[in-house]
Design goal:
This protein is α+β, with helices and mostly antiparallel strands. It has 12 helices and 20 strands. Strands 1, 12, 13, 14, 15, 16, 17, 18, 19 and 20 form a 10-stranded antiparallel beta sheet that branches. Strands 6-5-4-7 form a 4-stranded parallel beta sheet, with helices on both faces. Strand 14 and strand 15 form a beta hairpin. Helix 4 crosses helix 5 and helix 6 packs across helix 7. The N terminus is likely disordered.
């Protein structure tokens, strides 16, 4: 049930306070840094998530530093304090972390042992290794979520066709095979209708697990934030629309979702954040089924399902993540309009996007456009648009019109 002290557009939960640790390490002492310009947050990775985090950092007076592979990356193009290095190299990570009040990530690919090493040297890293491993390793995630009573698909480790056939005999075909580590936007996932279809991924040399196929009605996502103090907030539950394994649309709040069902989804996400010790943002992707909610995936960073919050929430997910990793009081997650729709912009065959700005802006002055500074390639996420309003059908139509116009003419 919804708490009487929480507005229906957002949910908050507090647990026992933890001592604040926001400083960089010199020897054994924790030395506050930042000065009059504010604290320094180091974000490992320089993609669009870091780029959009910079917008929030500017308003908060936070100095954002990013670790990029090259100057051509999305965030490296707009962030002055860009350091070049390899996130897989511990020495590069150690050098990058010096002088940071908090270190965080715009992806989950930093080796777990490197994060443990940084924590052991006294750096404030959020989320920590013990939490982030659940977003890095799907088998670890499934084991832990199952142990704490979170609803998940039936699953098992598999290493050969015989294992998959035994799993299918118990749970039926199709069987979903997933890479234990890596994979996103549909990559590293195979829906197999037979043992023959399972052979190719099984022979790829990638560690896999099998999951029962979930006949879902729609996909939902819950974005929550948790600080080292233990304060937690939840954004409204959203519906995500997928095409070819890629999220193409997010609708906030999820249309037609009852108050009790929304509260149940938020409670699941907040429980996961607390049980796993997440600090920063946590995105929980769920299936809505006839028999209830089933957790699909986790991400511990700003997430595509939360891009709508830049205009659509009182506190954007990017500001919220910065607040959380610095152990600051968390902001309001409530909506700024009754309906918010975000549509991802996927590259088309014509890269001359700016030539189409005039039509989109003149047609709908309320549309908000975000580009990620990426080269245009067919099917690549290059930005998103957001529309706000009161009528769902009208807001969706506006968002899709803008996205289709910006993409340009259909590929021939």
């Amino acid at each position: 049930m919804n708490s009487p002290n929480v507005p229906p557009s957002g949910r908050e939960a507090d647990s026992a306070a933890a001592p604040r640790h926001a400083g960089a390490t010199t020897g054994k002492a924790v030395v506050p840094v930042g000065g009059p310009d504010g604290p320094v947050v180091g974000m490992v990775g320089a993609g669009q998530l870091a780029r959009m985090t910079q917008q929030a950092a500017i308003a908060l007076g936070i100095d954002l530093r990013v670790l990029a592979n090259s100057r051509d990356e999305s965030a490296a193009k707009v962030i002055v304090d860009t350091r070049l290095g390899d996130y897989r190299d511990l020495a590069d990570l150690q050098e990058f972390a010096k002088g940071c009040d908090a270190v965080t990530f715009d992806h989950e690919h930093v080796p777990t042992e490197h994060i443990r090493a940084l924590l052991g040297e006294g750096f404030a890293v959020h989320p920590g290794a013990d939490a982030l491993v659940h977003a890095q390793d799907k088998a670890v995630m499934r084991e832990r979520l199952t142990a704490i009573g979170v609803p998940c698909p039936a699953w098992a480790h598999v290493s050969g066709v015989a294992d998959v056939e035994a799993f299918a005999q118990e749970h039926g075909w199709p069987v979903v095979l997933k890479a234990v580590r890596g994979g996103y936007d549909g990559r590293g996932v195979w829906v197999c209708a037979s043992a023959d279809e399972a052979r190719e991924p099984l022979e790829s040399g990638v560690a896999l697990l099998a999951e029962a196929f979930v006949p879902f009605e729609r996909e939902l996502a819950v974005l929550v934030a948790r600080s080292p103090h233990g304060q937690g907030v939840s954004y409204p539950v959203v519906e995500t629309v997928q095409k070819d394994g890629i999220c193409v649309e997010v609708i906030a709040p999820a249309p037609g979702l009852g108050e009790e069902d929304a509260a149940a989804a938020q409670h699941i996400a907040l429980k996961i954040a607390q049980e796993l010790g997440v600090t920063g943002l946590l995105a929980v992707e769920m299936f809505s089924t006839e028999s209830g909610l089933v957790v699909n995936e986790l991400a511990m960073r700003p997430h595509n399902s939360g891009h709508w919050t830049i205009e659509g929430a009182r506190t954007s997910q990017f500001e919220q993540h910065l607040r959380a990793v610095l152990n600051l009081p968390l902001g309001s997650p409530s909506l700024t309009a009754p309906v918010v729709v975000m549509v991802n912009l996927l590259g088309g065959s014509d890269p001359n996007i700016f030539s189409r700005y005039e039509h989109v802006m003149a047609h709908d002055p309320g549309i908000k456009i975000h580009f990620y500074g990426k080269d245009v390639r067919p099917g690549r996420k290059i930005g998103h648009v957001t529309a706000l309003g009161t009528d769902l059908a009208e807001v969706r139509a506006r968002a899709w019109h803008a996205a289709d116009c910006l993409k340009g003419p259909a590929d021939v």
